[in-house]
Amino acid sequence: MTGTRWLDERERAAWRGFLEASHRVERALEQQLKEDAGLSHPQYEVLVRLADAPGGELRMSELARLLITSKSGLTYQVGQLEKRGHVRRRSCPTDVRGVFAQLTDQGYEALRQAAPGHVDAVRAALIDVLEPDELDVVARALGRVGHRLR
């Protein structure tokens, strides 16, 4: 067995920069959505994924996979959205264990109202901070990281 490959100064700077940036971006987006739309970032992402899905619905297991979250965590978020009338759940007619989450008209409207402020916050926190060539590098690099961890 080989020894630990400790991070050198350059690697530590990259790691710490990633950690700080990712935490600060997430906190900024969470705060903006709470203040402007009364939604958590995970709830917003549920609405987005459902809006993008055919018929505005997905199986809960597929939604959890897309959001990279646990089934229990997703159940909580969907439950909160369901209380607000943004989402409804229904049983799968072909699988007694399957449950679908479906975007309601009220949920679509909440997303439509929240999206402009959210996009402004994403731009302010990340997109507009980077030069166009940096955006390409970040997209490629983080895409590789995501692919490796799938």
Give the secondary structure arrangement, pairings included.
Elements: H1 9-37, H2 41-52, E1 57-59, H3 60-67, H4 71-83, E2 87-92, E3 95-103, H5 105-125, H6 132-149
Antiparallel strand pairs: 1-3, 2-3
Helix pairs in contact: 1-5, 2-5, 3-4
Features:
3-stranded antiparallel sheet; 150 residues; globular; 6 helices; alpha+beta
> How many distinct beta strands?
3
* CA(first)-CA(last) distance: 26 Å
Q: Report the C-alpha radius of gyration, rounded.
A: 18 Å
Q: Largest sheet at a glance?
A: 3 strands, antiparallel
Spatially, the strands of the biggest sheet line up as 1-3-2
Tally the helices: 6
Structural class: alpha+beta
Shape: globular
The run of helices and strands is HHEHHEEHH
Task: Please provide a written account of the structure.
The chain has 150 residues and is of the alpha+beta class. Helices cover 67% and strands 12% of the residues. It has a three-stranded antiparallel sheet. Helix 1 (9-37) packs across helix 5 (105-125), helix 2 crosses helix 5 and helix 3 packs across helix 4 (71-83). The two termini are 26 Å apart.
